[in-house]
Design a protein that fits this description.
Length: 540
Amino acid sequence: MTERVEGHGGELALAALRAHGVREMFTLSGGHVFPLYDAAHKTDFPIYDVRHEQSAVFAAEAVAKLQRRPGLAVLTAGPGVTNGVSGLTSAFFNASPVLVLGGRAPQFRWGSGSLQEMDHLPLVAPVTKHAETVFSADDIPRAVTAALTAALTPHRGPVFLDFPLESVFSVGDAELPQVSPVAPIEADPDEVARAAGLIAAASRPVIIAGSDVYAGDAIDALRAAAEALQVPVFTNGMGRGALPPEHPLAFAKARRVGLKNADVVVVIGTPLDFRLGFGDFGDAQVVHIVDAPSQRAGHVRPAASPAGDLRLILTALAEHPGDRADHADWVAQLRVAEDAAKARDAEEMAADSDPIRPARVYGELRKVLAADAITIGDGGDFVSYAGRYLEPAQPGTWLDPGPYGCLGTGMGYAMGARVSHPDRQICVLMGDGAAGFSLMDVESLVRQQLPVVIVVGNNGIWGLEKHPMRAMYGYDVAADLQPGLRYDKVAEALGGAGETVEKAADLGPALTRAFDAGVPYLVNVLTDPADAYPRSSNLA
């Protein structure tokens, strides 16, 4: 039986949002969206506000990623929306079901030059699954329901609605649409069988599992498939932690050896993009398993590419009835390489050199991070080390900018993570370059009593640009930052706390103080600018 709702546009929107499990709003105050605040305030619906709209969208995206449900950002008209476009674009690349509700100048005066009058839709349409202007208060519940259904339908992604002033401030009366679960996409059974046969018959198969495995709630199915077929598993994005580090099929350090020698590479829930060499694995056959047909690679011809609900596909792989090759020797070969790489990493993470090497920072972090801690990467060079040296023990505990590579996610992700998990450690790993994008939102965290730990790797340069540019041209420009800058003093000035660390031996005690502080605490680590992450350019 449908429910009728009435009230102003903000009340109608909130009724539909609640029905979809949305439980909080991230925003930066603006008059065009006052009715949404009014509806939230009168019903004790939590509002978290920020100092830059991008942080509101990033916070909503963190909620969407971590909780596998819609996250909500509310932005005022004009610059409020345009300031959030980078967040929307990141959510688009990361397949995060984020809803952005925007204010809009009044329609009855359109073209007369109202404050912040602009048509947002042409800007946001390319980076959203659904974008619509809702011209009537009565139509708001329908529009919110349609947008959130689109956001949650694989391949998931962000959606956008804006409300002209007369729409959201007016009183309306409408039926609240029923919320129906999104039907799973059924993959072609022949394509699934072809993939299963290739994996089972391979001599040296590997699996690479990405963020959509977590987003699609397919972690258990992945483990079952890997164990049934005895295939070693590597991960990226939010796939990290899908198998705990101690699992006999979990690998992280031997990826180069694995991909160089594999005869079948199974990529699940992540695109064949620059992070995976654009899907070029030499002579190996590629099986690309995706959650929707739209995600099949267009630049590579896989040997098989099942598209559909990842839980169903992976369960079918686990239940493959055909013959299976023995992969024990292959797994053992990779384990030798993995153990050797771990030994090298352990030596680097214990380096006692000054200036501090980035590896040592992560060696000390590993000692204090709990198994369920959420680590957030916001940076280039410094965060590249995090991907190498940190091994999440559980799924759903790793957030990074994803393939769009947008800096500035840190404080918004931290806010969304703290709201999602009030009792866990939240640790932001931030380059000093990235600190320039969002550090002002430490004030938002302080004011709303959302403690997090921020570790800034401070080498005084744009590391991923300075060293390659110098190698290419013999010089570099626009790649230097102020050396030794006291980012901890910025955090203190904004109401938090912090300290600068210059000696490797002081790292451990500083991190312990940070996690015990109970307030946003910034550990400003002066790292060696000559120690750049060793990887080739990913520009092409």
